[in-house]
Alanine--glyoxylate aminotransferase 2, mitochondrial (Drosophila yakuba), 457 residues
Amino acid sequence: AYKGSSYEQILKTRRNHLTPNLLAHFKKPLVIHAGHMQWLYDHEGRRYLDMFGGIVTVSVGHCHPKVNQALSEQTAKLWHTTNIYMHPKIHEYAERLVAKFPGNLKSVCFVNSGSEANDLAMLMARLHTGNQDILSLRNCYHGMSPYTMGLTAHSTWRFPLPGVNNGLVHVMNPDPYQGIWGGSNCRDSPVQTNRDCQCAVGCQASDAYYNELEETFKYSLPRGKVAAMFAESIQGVGGTVQFPKGYLKRAAALVRANGGLFVADEVQTGFGRTGEHFWGFEGHDYLPDIVTMAKGIGNGFPLAAVVTTPEIAASLGQALHFNTYGGNPMASAVGIAVLDVIEEEQLQRNSLEVGTYFLTGLAKLQQRFEIIGDVRGKGLMIGVELVGNREKRTPLATPHVLDIWEKCKDLGVLFGRGGLHGNVLRIKPPMCITLADANFAVDVLARAITESLPENN
Ligand code: PMP
């Protein structure tokens, strides 16, 4: 049982002393004081099925015993050296992590958050190419540091500051459901489950978005002088947006032809989450020049990394580059344990199996409820888009979305929310969930919709 401050006291402290920019989830916010695998416990001991994993961060399970053990063994031995002396763990971990990458992606720099990782990738790309301009897709989220805030192209997360957009270009988002050129030919009929958008190269939507990218190069950018393009493999914060097949592969070739590097942001899609592959970019059949990762890499421990080729990494040799905590012994011990658990418990395979089953269950709900406009995703990276009008794909009004979302919480399931209009339920749980958990979540969502919008039955 929880014996700390009262619920009221916690709310009061939050109101009076914590930064007001902390996200306030739910009308009656949750106080979580313990977690175990896919479960979270509130201050009254109520148990919740965690379908969001602290925003896709808890990859192998809350307080996973093996990760806990690795961390506590390391804390008893050594916390910190700032890498001014060598410690064995960072070396062991670097070997393990780069072994997960194809091609010449063999050099790693450890940092502490996704924003830092993307900051560093921007810096490397600019130093390596000698170019300034970086492209990203509208609706993407790459971080909140002053550098990455500009890269993030999602109005919800943008502050009106001069210089934020310096050297950054946001291009049309190849979104087959809400995008301007849609992809209606590939998303209208039968519900797609557990695969990339099946638009082949040559499909109308894929071509339209790619042509727009080509036009941007032609008209707006100094020829042959681009530093990089960034993309998530499936947009996370943007609402689980999957790109038409072939788009990223062709975009990467175009960026390279213009002197730039392609950066895959695997902060949400890495570490087996998409099921079919360990890295999301592998599902798009191309090899990036730089890969950034955070969140699931540490199962909730502050740890992130940039992996690239030795040649690109060498660009940082022009001056000293320093990070106090990057790759510290505790983070490295956790990182190794996370990789061990993913392998030993075959969590990538579990993501594929449970994810496919989950998507199929949600697709059945879509047939039952008009307000479920789209069910999409891959593995345990799932989105359920709620709409007011299915034909026009208009987002469901926010109060209804909030109502359904909160009801799910009251019924014991925590979903995330995202998308430009906040109308996409995001399902990205710890990868240890079971078929029974998927069933429970689908049942809870059905009941929440029925109770919130009885006319939808
Ligand atoms: N990239 C992506 C795809 C993310 O989802 C996030 C966080 N939501 C980040 C980068 C930034 O990570 P952090 O919050 O650790 O800085």
Remarks:
- The longest strand covers residues 381-389.
